[in-house]
Amino acid sequence: MPQTSIEFEVGSEDAVSAAAAGLEAAGYSLLHAAKTEPWGQTLARILSPEGLLVGISHAPWMHEDVST
């Protein structure tokens, strides 16, 4: 079981898929490919060789323009 997790927020759903493909190309095995959760967040995850759970995430509400 992982003892630590970290998620990297990216700018779009497509960026999650691209990052996941890049990780696979670098030799990492995905725990799961990019998927969109019912609440709208898209993410993909790997388990690093050190046991770190690493997520690539896009949460649309974090990218909304709140200045208008």
Description:
By secondary structure, the chain is an alpha+beta fold. The chain has a single domain (4-61), classed as 2,3-Dihydroxybiphenyl 1,2-Dioxygenase, domain 1 (Roll), CATH 3.10.180.10. It is 19% helix and 38% strand. It is built from one helix and four strands; from the N terminus they run E-H-E-E-E. A four-stranded mixed beta sheet has the order 1-4-3-2, with helices on one face. Strand 2 and strand 3 (42-47) form a beta hairpin. The protein is globular and about 40 Å long. It starts with a strand and ends in a 10-residue tail after the last strand.
List keywords for this structure.
4-stranded mixed beta sheet, single chain, alpha+beta, 68 residues, 2,3-Dihydroxybiphenyl 1,2-Dioxygenase, domain 1
CATH homologous superfamily (4th level) name: 2,3-Dihydroxybiphenyl 1,2-Dioxygenase, domain 1
What is the oligomer described by this structure? single chain
Beta-strand portion reads: 35-45%
Mean pLDDT score, rounded? 92
Helix-strand topology string: EHEEE
Main sheet: strand order: 1-4-3-2
CATH class: Alpha Beta
Largest sheet entry: 4 strands, mixed
- Structurally, how many domains make up the residues? 1
Helical content stands at 10-25%
In short:
With 68 residues, the chain is α+β, with helices and mostly antiparallel strands. The chain is 19% helix and 38% strand.
SSE layout and pairings?
Elements: E1 4-9, H1 13-25, E2 30-36, E3 42-47, E4 52-58
